[in-house]
TrEMBL record:
Keywords, alphabetical: Membrane, Transmembrane, Transmembrane helix
Transmembrane spans: 50-69
Every Oxidoreductase molybdopterin-binding domain range: 125-286
Name the UniProt record assigns to this protein: Molybdopterin-dependent oxidoreductase
Biased composition (Low complexity): 14-40
Length: 297
């Protein structure tokens, strides 16, 4: 458990992967980056039908595979599942929530994570006195249910480790090893996602009084993300406290950050201050800039 966060490049096993890894590391020119951002922003605000009318080939040429991987759909269901969703939305959502897993890798393939994004990570912060605040689900008018947790409280819960790929919407990705607590395990011990306080016994079928969404906010409220409840309950959605075998550094989100590898890096909020359950889509920093709210890939 002491593998260092060493700054070396991956040694790909085969030529196809080497090519892909090289493509991942190729920085965009400013013009390409601008074009890609414009394409992503446009797609996020256009209807799917109108988007198809624009001509997929032109847009694909513009932004390459990164664009193709990006789902323009507001609910984040990937295209290959869309037909099934149209047929039966509920079944597909269950499938998405618990059967579709992000790929996991041999731990030896974990590499140093590139730093990206420091919104909400100001200097005025003392990790030693940090506490996680959780605002339990209380429908409008009901009394607030607020609870605070120390890092020791979080670490006392079942530990989950996984080696997954963090994909940034800018087009790079890195395989990293995480350790932390599943949000679903946290909720099994502290059932704050239902208004009655009953635990969610079947993660595929949350009870009727369960929140529909969860919002996470940095202590200074400068960065914030929202997740659908089914994404929050996904077995690979972690409250992470270790990266590549060592405690998170402040820049990577210490003491506690979100990891949810079916979604882009933008959703992996660093330095969680508050978690709140809600029945409406919580505010989301990058969605406010025009990106897809769900952030799936
Ligand atoms: N608080 C906070 N969390 C954040 C961001 C940010 O700006 N502020 N950026 C996000 C983005 S865009 C990415 S790609 C990942 C990067 O995480 P890393 O810096 O640990 O690699 O953090 C995400 N979480
Ligand atoms: Mo990102």
């Amino acid at each position: 458990m002491t593998s260092p966060d060493a700054p070396h490049q991956p040694a790909p096993d085969n030529p196809a992967e080497a090519a892909r890894a090289a493509a991942d590391r190729t920085p965009l020119t400013p013009a390409q980056a601008q074009a890609e951002q414009a394409a992503l922003r446009g797609a996020a605000t256009r209807s799917r039908r109108a988007f198809l009318g624009l001509g997929l080939a032109g847009l694909a040429g513009l932004a390459g595979w990164r664009y193709l991987l990006h789902s323009p759909d507001a609910d984040g269901i990937p295209r290959d599942l869309r037909k099934v969703l149209d047929f039966n939305g509920k079944l597909t959502k269950d499938y998405f929530a618990h059967t579709r897993l992000a790929p996991e890798f041999a731990r030896s393939r974990a590499r140093q994570l590139r730093l990206n994004g420091n919104v909400g990570l100001g200097q005025d912060f003392d990790p030693a006195t940090w506490k996680l605040t959780v605002q339990g689900y209380a429908p409008a008018g009901a009394p607030a249910r607020r609870q605070e947790f120390t890092l020791a409280d979080i670490k006392a819960l079942p530990r989950t480790e996984m080696t997954t790929e963090l994909k940034c919407i800018e087009g790079w990705s890195v395989i990293v090893h995480w350790a932390g607590v599943r949000l679903s395990d946290f909720l099994a011990r502290y059932p704050l996602a239902t208004s009655s306080g009953q635990p969610i016994a079947d993660l595929r079928q949350p009870p009727a009084d369960a929140a529909k969404f969860v919002g996470l906010v940095t202590p200074d409220e400068q960065y914030y993300v929202g997740l659908e409840m089914y994404a929050a309950l996904h077995p690979q959605t972690l409250l992470a406290y270790e990266l590549n075998g060592v405690p998170l550094t402040l820049a990577h989100g210490a003491p506690l950050r979100l990891v949810t590898p079916l979604k882009y890096g933008v959703k992996h909020l660093k330095r969680i201050g508050t978690i709140a359950f809600a029945d409406q889509r919580p505010a989301d920093y990058w969605a406010e800039q025009g990106y897809d709210w769900s952030g799936g890939h």
